[in-house]
Write a structure and sequence with these properties.
Strand content: 5-15%
Number of helices: 20
Helix content: 40-55%
Radius of gyration: 26 Å
Structural class: alpha/beta
Strand order of the largest sheet: 3-2-1-4-9
Length: about 525
């Protein structure tokens, strides 16, 4: 009988990870866990303390910091796979999972399914001939070297890419490989996994190539399995049910999707909402059940396509979610930086991104030019962003696959602050209080249209006290609103003093906050 070693890549919610591991190993299977090194160490220690006594669970020998689109995701997978191969000699199959996955069949069904076919299950489509990549970089993922993360170092990513294009610094794809692409959620037989690990040891040239490709978790295993395994032993499909919306976002499943999920011809589903506790409870109980029969109608994707199609022609049953009041999610944390000197907030966010890897977006509700991913048009204009602000934020949380996100707001936008604080998510705010020279205030008057190129000096002089009082008034309004979890940095404070509120705001160690607060020229004009 098949025995599955689940390869779990995760980065949050230790309690859910513990429940998932105990549930999936209770029926005789195994699990190897890689918990992102960027996550708080106390979360990892909590998981280890709860699971170390379970002989069916092991951990990657090395934890690394993972970033979306980076080689680190493949390397973390390899670390977890190596541990599973070594510790679980009776495992016959290795199944990739994330913390957002849940079983939608019984363990009995899963074992019978795998026993019935001696094959690997992995999406594996020709990289260049298929239309698997809908938008963005395609061949450029491979022929150029990518050293930076597009999501948190966008300028460096595209600058490096553009310079390679200008200088013609392309590279050849390894001649003996046909590059394939597909979902990262695969299930492979033991002998296939052992062949992949041996290939990794024997071909350092291929490893060097993939280390600097972009989004290698969609190409590495897909290419190597096709290279090593006869075509007739590969089923070009994933056993994990997942869908993507029109806007490129993973579709999230909730409590009322239980029957729909069970009828799909898959073993697992992703993504299950953190708020769908009843769905998780029912699916968890299902996995250990026996004698359950399933009526497979497999209509999930066609039903979803039908319902969203009705939206395009004005016959949908309900508004698109961004057109109704949305919530960011109870388990998410929105962190607001507010500062009248926008360049100061941007400098701070740049340092935070570099030192913590937290996704941080600048004045997205105030500057049209703020870089944002393509979210299906909702991000196209400032008016749309503001009108659908909660839905926009929820899509950004999904896009960055995070539960913590930083944005900048102008201190004048008290309504937006009240709205976000009124959400079920956790909201905290950092106000950066600056000193304002007359020159800066005059520049501000010109930027907002209070003064122009031909405004007489005496008029500008009369404007200065009003503008200064207005800036002070905005700060007073924030204070009077009595927002909870409000922290303040001040230009007049030392870096050591500013590190205290910054550490509390970001939930990071004081030493790390002090390094950020010591950013050169942070407050200069």
């Amino acid at each position: 009988m098949s025995r599955i070693a689940y390869i779990l890549l995760c980065h949050k919610d230790p309690d859910a990870i513990i429940r998932q591991a105990e549930r999936l190993t209770a029926t005789g299977d195994f699990m190897s866990i890689h918990f992102d090194a960027r996550a708080p160490r106390e979360d990892y220690e909590k998981i280890r303390a709860a699971l170390d006594g379970n002989p069916a669970i092991t951990f990657a020998r090395k934890r690394i910091k993972c970033g979306w689109g980076e080689w680190s995701l493949v390397q973390a997978t390899l670390h977890a796979v190596e541990a599973a191969v070594e510790d679980f000699p009776r495992a016959t199959h290795f199944y990739m999972l994330s913390g957002d996955c849940m079983p939608i069949k019984t363990a009995e069904f899963a074992h019978d399914f795998l026993d019935a076919t001696d094959a690997d299950h992995i999406e594996s489509f020709d990289f260049f001939e298929s239309d698997w990549i809908k938008t963005g970089l395609k061949g450029e993922r491979l022929i150029y070297r990518h050293f930076f993360n597009e999501r948190n170092s966008k300028w460096l990513f595209y600058t490096c890419y553009e310079w390679q294009k200008r200088l013609g610094l392309t590279r050849a794809i390894p001649e003996d490989l046909q590059i394939m692409i597909g979902s990262q959620w695969w299930c492979l037989r033991r002998r296939t996994i052992e062949q992949v690990l041996e290939f990794c040891r024997a071909r350092p040239d291929v490893m060097r190539f993939f280390r600097t490709t972009w989004i290698p978790d969609e190409t590495f295993f897909q290419t190597l399995v096709r290279h090593l395994v006869p075509r007739q032993e590969i089923r070009t499909r994933t056993l994990t049910f997942l869908m993507f919306s029109d806007y490129g976002m993973p579709v999230t499943f909730y409590n009322d999707h239980y029957d729909l999920l069970l009828s799909q011809d898959f073993l697992f589903a992703r993504k299950i909402s953190p708020e769908a506790q009843e769905l998780k409870r029912r699916l968890g109980a299902l996995y250990s059940a026996t004698g359950v029969s399933f009526q497979l109608s497999n209509e999930g994707r066609s039903l979803y396509k039908f319902l969203t199609g009705r939206g395009r022609i004005g016959q949908r049953f309900a508004p698109r979610f961004w057109e109704k009041e949305a919530t960011l999610g109870r388990d998410r944390e929105l962190m607001i930086v507010t500062c009248k000197k926008w360049h100061v907030a941007k400098r701070l966010l740049h340092e935070v991104r570099q030192r913590t890897n937290l996704p941080a977006i600048e004045y997205l509700f105030h500057e049209q030019s703020t870089p944002l991913p393509d979210l299906g048009g909702i991000q196209a204009t400032l008016e749309k962003r503001t009108r659908h602000r909660r839905a926009l934020m929820r899509m950004l949380f999904d896009y960055y696959q995070t539960d913590r996100l930083i944005i900048c707001l102008d201190p004048a936008d008290l309504d937006l602050m009240h709205d976000f604080y009124g959400d079920r998510s956790r909201t905290r705010m950092l106000e950066i209080q600056c000193q304002f020279s007359d020159e800066y205030l005059l520049g501000h008057a010109h930027r907002v249209g209070l003064a122009g190129e031909h405004t007489p000096p005496e008029v500008e002089a009369r404007l200065l006290p009003t503008i200064r009082n207005d800036v002070i008034f905005e700060s007073d309004r924030i204070r009077d609103a009595e927002f909870p979890h409000l922290y303040r940095m001040r230009e007049t404070n030392s870096p050591e003093q500013n590190a205290v509120p910054l550490a509390a705001f970001l939930s990071i160690p004081h030493d790390q906050a002090r390094e950020i607060a010591q950013t050169p020229y942070l407050f200069s004009d």
